[in-house]
Write a structure and sequence with these properties.
Blueprint: E1 5-11, H1 12-23, H2 29-39, E2 45-51, E3 56-60, E4 66-67, H3 74-99
Antiparallel strand pairs: 1-2, 2-3, 3-4
Protein name: Sulfur relay (Sulfurtransferase) DsrF/TusC family protein
Organism: Paenibacillus aceris
């Protein structure tokens, strides 16, 4: 049986842009872009493959290298944890409905 995966892409710059846009009424999109361009020279761009058996593969889209979950920090780690919790809850709900 094939192990299904749930694929997500996390682009850190987009995360910070959206957060700034939602958290303030005082900055225009162009101002946010300018701040982000000045703040960092590199933002993470990862693809996450979460498998139904609980395993995960994380690929750095810039280098095509695999990343271990313990290497994640900041916003990327937050994204990973939130998706992991969401998928565990979703899997439990599916099983409850299947066996109810």
């Amino acid at each position: 049986m094939m192990n299904a995966s749930h694929n997500f892409r996390f682009i850190e710059r987009d995360y910070w842009y959206h957060k700034a846009l939602c958290d303030t009424d005082h900055l225009l999109p162009g101002q946010i872009d300018a701040m982000l361009d000045e703040a960092h020279s590199h933002y993470a761009d990862y693809t996450f493959k979460f498998y139904d058996d609980g395993s995960v593969i994380i690929i750095d889209n810039d280098t095509n290298n695999r990343i271990k979950p313990r290497e994640l920090t900041g916003a990327v780690y937050d994204f990973y944890v939130r998706k992991r919790i969401y998928l565990i809850k979703y899997n439990l709900m599916e099983k409850q409905l299947q066996y109810a």
